[in-house]
Amino acid sequence: MKQGNSLLPICSAECLYSVVLEAKLLLCLSLKKENHCEAGASLLSPTEAGASAEHNKSLNWRSYWMMKYRESASAEHNRCLNAFALGMKAFDMETYKDYINIITGDITRFKGDAIVNAANTSLLGGGGVDGAIHRAAGRKLLQECETLGGCETGQSKMTDAYNLPCKKIIHTVGPVWRSGKHHEERLLASCYETALQLALDNGLETIAFPCISTGVYRFPKAEAACIALHTISAFLRDHERKLKVTIVCYIEEDMEYYTDFFKKESL
Ligand code: AR6
Question: How far away, in angstroms, is 215 Cα from ligand 1 center?
Answer without folding.
Answer: 5
